[in-house]
Amino acid sequence: MLRLDGLDVYYGEIHALRGVALEVREREIVALLGNNGAGKSTTLKTVSGLLRPRRGTIMLDDRPLVDVPAHDIVARGIAHVPEGRRIFNRLSVRENLAMGAYLRSDDGIAGDLDRVFDLFPRLKERIAQVAGTLSGGEQQMLAIGRALMATPRLLLLDEPSMGLAPVLVEQIFATIESINRQGTTILLVEQNAAMALSIAHRGYVLETGTVVLAGSAAELAGNARVRRAYLGE
Predict the structure, then answer these.
(1) Cα 188 vs. chain centroid, distance in angstroms?
(2) Which residues pair with 156 in a beta bridge?
(3) Which residues of the chain have pLDDT under 50?
(4) What's residue 54's pLDDT?
(5) Distance, CA of 196 to CA of 31 (rounded, Å)
(6) 191, 161 Cβ separation under 8 angstroms
(7) What are the residue ranges of helices labelled H in 104-205?
(8) Using one digit for the tens of pLDDT, what is the confidence trace for 26-61?
(9) Is the four-CA dihedral 59, 63, 67, 70 of positive or negative sign?
(10) Which of 11, 12, 41, 133 reaches 20 to 30 Å from 50, CA-CA?
């Protein structure tokens, strides 16, 4: 479905991604692990068109994405839930969700809104509330719900558990699994490596912009290097 090959990305003269290659197959959850500054968020931003690679290719269903505008990437079926949620603080919950469907003109929007409310009943309760007054967990629900309103085939999730209480982390990850079971492919960036590997099918480990390990979630969870660096063992 998604394939990155030889991806080099720079911030000015800083070489952020160095020849990154990875693959996400249809209906998978693929975890992207690494410490702060490893290049995880940069990878997602490059896939979604917010950053341009200096070298390398990005293919979605064998069609190139490099140099495709970000809004066209959304139209092709990729939605990005950025780190820090980036909701529209002054808009209501309803208005934020409507923004997720801004490219759509079909008659399925109401049905997809109901799907979001099925996944996140709290958002239905808060539908008229100004988004900036929501709790951190509710804002994360809203950010994911807004992305789902674009009806993506591939969902990019950047640190969905950041700043959340453990009980909310478990709820968010259970919902991510549910979204995947409903047919959405997921590329997941997550500092909580144990939680990420508990729901992922496969994973990659980034260090200083380079993929250093790849394998099934079970293989990575059992890898001594991963256990020392990311699982606290």
Answers:
(1) 5
(2) 80, 187
(3) none
(4) 96
(5) 6
(6) yes
(7) 109-119, 121-125, 136-148, 166-181, 193-199
(8) 999 999 999 888 999 999 999 999 999 999 999 999
(9) negative
(10) 133
